[in-house]
Specification:
Keywords: Hydrolase. By secondary structure, the chain is of the alpha/beta class. It is 43% helix and 15% strand. α6 links the parallel β5 and β6.
Length: 279
């Protein structure tokens, strides 16, 4: 019996006896990210960055100058995971600011969730020049879409390997961890109370996405299925969909076709500015 099988068995048993207690422990685990160190290939870009501190202690890295592109990594991610994309944007004349999400890197906090990610984007945008684009990976993409519903303004939005709805992720995680039905319900409700928003509301089908966008996903993503990209694209009238044949959940960030598509979208919005910043 491996460790995960044992954990699921314990959760299944305790979840029937003390569902609220088990759900509480799982909620804390779910919302407490590990701070993972950068890989060797990320270190040169990290060394070339300017470290800046924004309001409320939010930490970020900055490269280049020009129209500002704001980046948000995914859960347990890092700004430098965007290394290939950052270099391409800087070479094309853009200034890039990449956030350490709440409870990640040097940003404050112990726990995080998609709502806190979205609020961090709003806080950063309030201190930066008008945003040419916001680019988010995984939960960073989900939070960027949510942030637009909370008032974030940008000329364009790029979502990479992002989920279309949070409730599916919560249920999937609870099921994977072996929680029985009653404990799963308690887990979802506890996450909702902590985040302050019903999970069912965190769904692209409920959003009004009124800015140009790009939805990118790899066919072989084993973390977030490519069907989520189709759902996002279907709900977002002014979006382009790029389905890559390979790249998984992380390697997709280094795909040259991603950089090409991002630069293409930014070129389009610079030639014909959207109403997002004019309103």
């Amino acid at each position: 019996m491996n460790q995960m099988t044992w954990v699921r068995g314990v959760n299944a048993t305790l979840g029937r006896v003390a569902p609220q207690m088990v759900a509480s422990r799982l909620r804390e685990r779910f919302m407490t990210p590990r701070n993972l160190p950068p890989r060797d290939w990320e270190l040169p870009l990290l060394a070339s960055a300017e470290r800046i501190t924004l309001r409320f202690g939010l930490s970020a890295l900055r490269w280049g100058s020009g129209p500002t592109v704001l980046l948000m990594h995914g859960w347990e991610g890092r700004p430098t995971q965007f290394a290939y994309l950052i270099r391409g944007l800087v070479d094309a004349g853009y200034g890039v600011v990449a956030l350490d999400a709440p409870a990640h890197g040097r940003s404050p906090g112990r726990e995080a969730n998609v709502v806190l990610f979205a609020r961090a984007l709003l806080e950063a945008a309030s201190e930066l020049p008008p945003l040419q684009a916001v680019i988010g990976h995984s939960m960073g993409g989900a939070s960027a879409m949510l942030a637009t519903q909370m008032g974030l303004r940008a000329e364009a939005l790029v979502c990479i390997a992002a989920p279309s709805r949070i409730l599916t992720m919560l249920r999937g995680f609870a099921h994977f961890m072996g929680l029985p039905a009653v404990a799963r319900s308690h887990f979802v409700r506890q996450v909702e109370r902590t985040a302050g928003i019903p999970a069912a509301h965190l769904d692209v089908q409920r959003y009004q996405l009124e800015l140009p966008g790009l939805v990118v996903h790899a066919e072989d993503d084993q973390v977030v299925p490519v069907s989520e990209a189709e759902r996002i694209h279907g709900a977002w009238f002014d979006s382009q969909l790029l389905r890559l044949p390979a790249g998984g959940h992380q390697r997709v960030l280094g795909d040259p076709l991603l950089l090409q598509a991002v630069l293409g979208l930014l070129g389009e919005v610079r030639q014909a500015p959207s109403k997002a910043l004019a309103s």
